[in-house]
Amino acid sequence: MILPWAVAAAALALAVAAWVLARRNARRLAQLSQMYWELKYQHGELRAQVQRITGEAAPPAPAPEPPQANAFIPLASLKR
Fold this sequence. Notes:
By secondary structure, the chain is mainly α. It has one domain. It is 71% helix and 0% strand. It has two helices and no strands. It starts with a helix and ends with a helix. 0% of the residues are buried.
């Protein structure tokens, strides 16, 4: 009779510990995400400032990739 209660209490304690850990990790993830975007913004600002100071032109944008020759074409569009 005591064994099921002990198992239930252990499972409840484990669930509470997992819930606390998950909340802590979620908060840390939100903080790291915020720090990442702030750093990315500051990097862009500093890059623009260096380009203004040195008089360099902005780097060219990468060329779009050409479409593949063996792309999927549905049969319904070929019947028309």
